[in-house]
Each structure stands twice: as structure tokens, then as C-alpha cells.
């Protein structure tokens, strides 16, 4: 070890900062009232009172701050956002708030709500976990609040079995839909088409509201709590060195949430804007869009460096741009299928934050992650859950991607020599940590009409 490691700090990101959420919401959302429009329904941002049932429901929202061994002269801390055994990803926090808002709306109005969410898997798993928790906690009756998720067929292996899939009544109310098309991101278009074509009829015929929950604000307000936790566990203003936050991203909802939380603290006078940490975006070659935008302000894959193929191994290699893999198997390599967003609308906001507060972006390959895997696993020995010894048992690569990106960025001079690093552990789990959903529980859909048939016309 480089040094004696401090004891980890643990917090419930929602309960511990529940009193701050109205301020966080108000600083982000202009109108917090419900939206009474079938094509854009929202239950509003009113949260339930934190009584015993709500506190039990939110008890899964824990996070940890762990000091790890350093790397290359940099201190490394892990912000562990994957402690909920029902999800093992950061999607827990936003999903719990989304479902809490929906349950409060149902209680207040007597109306029924169906959450509809396209997902690459993790978001859908977390929403289903949150709905089941709400039912079990008595916040809502099963027929009052439902969830339907639409996932690409290629991500089906990440979907989890729970009572929402094994109990026949709950399964019928909460379908898992899989899209077999060749473009995974098309699940978003299918969901939006259902909203436009069928949500009104579903309300008129069945009294069921449809809430399409992909809006950024639904996630930022929960992820803002990361900054509040950092202020408690390891205040930036008390650190001797600057800090960089690293995150494997698709659309960077989590990092945007963190920076929103920092902005709220700064506006209060509880944090110094001059000490705002920098950001490191980590992506894979299938969707390097945010790194491309940070560097070039566009998404053109023509910006990728020129690679040459080794005639002996078939591997691709380049040595001209440190922001991209030095070696890779292919230029459209899917390392982690949960990262499937092309041309994310959040790119402008994230690039502006990096311009103002510093940082960079880096793309990693499978070969680089496999090379780093033993070292990443060794670093994680002081974390609460180890990585599998056999990388083939890993089903969520976000954390390994983030660590690999950090190490590569340090080695290539993309991280200031004076900076310490916080890795957002947004997701990691192995095959031994969950039971995949049964194939019989997956309903194939290609169109909005198929979705309507699955949820009830």
C-alpha cells in the first residue's frame, strides 16, 4: 500500500440529504407541478414525507467513499454507488426518487401510473427494483403503480429476475419488453412512439397514466447528492491537492448530477467554485461521442485516429492520439452494452463544464481493460465487494472502464500531476451476484403497437 487507508465513509444519499432535495430540485426545475399532458405526463416533483415506510423504502440508497491504493503518484478514492444488491448500479438513486414521486402522486390523486422506460438494462433493473420496494413498503398498491421497460435484445442477459417476474400477477402488471432490432438505441424511438400513439387511449380506457421517465432532470436531482456526500466524507476545500472525478459514461447523467450538486453548494456558500473538481469522461469505441464532442465539438467518427492492423494478431494500433485506445480489436467494439447512446443531448453541457472546470475524455478498449483488470481487482480489495477473479464472470464493466481510463490518462499525461482522483463506481457485478430473468418472462416488441399489446390497449 502507498499509505495507511482511512476508514470508509457510508451515507444514504437520499435519506441523509432528504432535506436538501427541494432546494436541489428548485435550482434545476422551473415548474415542479405535475404535467397533465398524455404525451408529456409527469407526476411533478413533490416527494412523500419521510415516514417510517418511506425510510424503509429508501434504505437501499447507500453509497460509500473508500480510499484505495494510489496509482502513478495520484491518490485514488472510490465513490461506490453500486451497493444495492438489487441493482449493483448507480441507477438505484434516481429510480428510487422517480418511483417515490410517482407513488406520492398516486396517493395524492388516486390516479394510476405506469412508468415506461427504454433501457440498456441497468435503468430498467433499477426501476423494477424500486417499484417492488415501493409495493413491499406499502407506499402503493401493485395495480396503482406499474413499470414497463423496453431493452435491446443484446442486453437481455443483464436483466434480473425478481418477484416482478416470478409472481404471475406482478409480472402481468410489470412487463419486460425486448427489442430484437440491430440498433439497440431504437428502444427509445419505440417508447416515444408508444407515448405519442397510445398513451392517451390508455388513460381514457383504463385510467392509466404513462410516464416516460428519460428526462435528464429525473436523474440529475438524485445524482446531485454525490456532491453533498463528498462534502461530508472528503471536502474538496480541505484537500491539499486538486481533484478530478472520473466516470464511465454514455450520456453523463451522473456527472452532470454531481456538478449540479456542487453548483447548489457553491450558491449556498458551502463550497468554493474555484475548487470545483475537474472531470474525466471514459467511453468505449462503440459510442465515443462525448469524448469526440469534448475534443472537437462534433460527433464525427472521422475524428478517430488512423489505426493500422497487425498482420500477425489482427489487433488495431495507433500512437498519435492519447485520448483513444492504443490497441483495440475493432473500431466499433462494444465493451459494455449499457453505453449505447449516440450524439447525446447532454454533450454541450458536459463539454462546457470541462471547459470551465478542467478535465478531459478518454476512450478505452477491451484489450486495455483486460490488461488492467488484475491491477483494478487488486485496488478493489479494500472495497466492500471484490471483482470476480475471472473477468469472464463480470457482467457490468463500468467500474473497470473507469479505472482503466484513469490509469491510461495518468500514464499518457492527460491528468494533472498534482491531482487526486475520485472514481465514480457506477456499476459492477458478476454472474454470481444476480439471477437472470427467465426467457419466458421476456416479451418481444418491434413497434409501438406491440408495446400496446403487451401493456394492455
SSE diagram, text form:
Layout: E1 9-12, H1 21-26, H2 52-57, E2 62-71, E3 74-80, H3 91-109, E4 112-118, H4 122-136, E5 145-152, H5 163-166, H6 168-173, E6 176-179, H7 186-206, E7 208-212, H8 217-223, H9 225-233, E8 243-248, H10 253-268, E9 278-284, H11 289-296, E10 308-309, E11 316-317, E12 327-328, H12 347-357, E13 359-364, H13 366-379, E14 394-396, H14 398-411, E15 420-425, E16 429-430, E17 442-444, H15 448-455
Parallel strand pairs: 3-15, 4-5, 4-7, 5-6, 6-17, 8-9, 8-15, 9-13
Antiparallel strand pairs: 1-2, 2-3, 10-11, 11-12, 14-16
InterPro entries: DUF6002
Pfam families: DUF6002 (PF19465)
Short description:
By secondary structure, the protein is α/β, with parallel strands linked by helices.
Tell me what the structure shows.
By secondary structure, the protein is of the alpha/beta class. Helices cover 36% and strands 18% of the residues. It folds into two domains: 63-85 and 218-433, Rossmann fold, CATH 3.40.50; 88-217 and 435-455, Rossmann fold (3-Layer(aba) Sandwich), CATH 3.40.50.1100. The protein contains 15 helices and 17 strands. The strands form four sheets. The protein has a seven-stranded mixed sheet with strand order 1-2-3-15-8-9-13, sandwiched between helices. It has a five-stranded parallel sheet with strand order 7-4-5-6-17, with helices on both faces. Helix 4 links the parallel strand 4 (112-118) and strand 5 (145-152). Helix 8 (217-223) crosses helix 10 (253-268), helix 9 packs across helix 10 (253-268) and helix 11 (289-296) packs across helix 12 (347-357). The mean pLDDT is 95.
Amino acid at each position: 500500500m502507498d499509505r495507511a487507508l482511512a476508514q470508509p465513509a457510508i451515507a444514504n444519499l437520499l435519506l441523509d440529504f432528504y432535506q436538501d432535495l427541494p432546494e436541489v430540485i428548485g435550482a434545476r426545475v422551473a415548474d415542479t407541478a405535475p404535467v397533465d399532458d398524455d404525451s408529456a405526463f409527469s407526476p411533478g416533483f413533490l416527494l412523500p414525507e419521510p415516514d417510517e415506510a418511506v425510510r424503509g423504502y429508501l434504505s437501499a440508497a447507500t453509497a460509500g467513499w473508500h480510499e484505495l491504493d494510489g496509482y502513478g503518484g495520484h491518490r485514488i478514492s472510490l465513490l461506490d454507488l453500486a451497493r444495492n444488491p438489487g441493482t449493483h448500479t448507480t441507477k438505484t438513486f434516481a429510480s428510487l426518487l422517480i418511483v417515490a414521486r410517482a407513488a406520492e402522486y398516486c396517493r395524492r390523486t388516486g390516479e394510476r401510473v405506469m412508468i415506461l422506460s427504454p433501457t440498456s438494462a441497468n435503468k430498467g433493473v433499477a426501476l423494477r427494483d424500486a417499484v417492488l420496494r415501493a409495493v413491499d413498503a406499502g407506499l402503493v398498491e401493485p395495480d396503482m403503480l406499474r413499470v414497463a421497460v423496453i431493452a435491446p435484445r443484446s442486453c437481455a442477459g443483464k436483466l434480473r429476475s425478481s418477484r416482478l417476474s416470478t409472481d404471475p400477477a406482478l409480472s402481468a402488471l410489470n412487463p419486460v419488453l425486448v427489442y430484437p432490432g440491430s440498433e439497440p438505441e431504437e428502444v427509445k424511438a419505440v417508447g416515444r412512439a408508444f407515448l405519442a400513439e397510445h398513451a392517451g387511449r390508455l388513460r381514457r380506457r383504463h385510467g392509466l397514466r404513462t410516464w416516460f421517465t428519460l428526462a435528464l432532470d429525473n436523474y440529475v436531482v438524485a445524482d446531485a447528492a454525490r456532491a453533498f456526500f463528498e462534502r461530508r466524507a472528503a471536502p474538496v476545500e480541505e484537500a491539499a491537492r486538486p481533484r478530478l472525478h472520473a466516470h464511465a459514461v454514455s450520456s453523463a447523467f451522473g456527472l452532470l448530477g454531481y456538478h449540479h450538486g456542487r453548483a447548489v453548494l457553491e450558491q449556498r456558500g458551502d463550497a468554493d467554485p474555484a475548487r470545483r473538481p475537474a472531470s474525466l469522461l471514459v467511453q468505449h469505441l462503440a459510442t465515443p461521442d462525448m469524448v469526440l464532442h469534448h475534443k472537437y465539438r462534433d460527433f464525427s467518427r472521422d475524428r478517430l485516429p488512423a489505426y493500422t492492423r497487425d498482420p500477425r494478431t489482427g489487433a488495431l494500433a495507433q500512437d498519435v492520439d492519447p485520448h483513444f485506445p492504443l490497441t483495440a480489436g475493432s473500431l466499433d467494439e462494444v465493451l459494455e452494452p449499457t453505453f449505447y447512446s449516440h450524439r447525446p443531448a447532454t454533450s454541450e453541457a458536459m463539454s462546457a463544464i470541462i471547459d470551465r472546470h478542467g478535465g478531459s475524455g478518454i476512450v478505452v478498449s477491451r484489450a486495455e481493460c483486460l490488461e488492467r483488470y488484475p491491477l483494478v481487482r487488486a485496488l478493489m480489495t479494500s472495497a466492500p465487494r471484490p471483482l470476480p477473479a475471472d473477468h469472464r464472470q463480470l457482467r457490468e464493466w463500468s467500474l473497470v472502464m473507469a479505472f482503466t481510463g484513469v490509469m491510461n490518462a495518468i500514464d499518457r499525461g492527460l491528468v494533472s500531476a498534482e491531482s487526486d482522483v475520485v472514481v465514480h463506481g457506477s456499476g459492477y457485478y458478476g454472474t454470481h451476484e444476480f439471477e437472470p430473468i427467465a426467457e419466458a418472462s421476456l416479451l418481444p416488441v418491434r413497434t409501438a403497437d406491440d408495446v400496446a399489446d403487451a401493456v394492455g390497449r
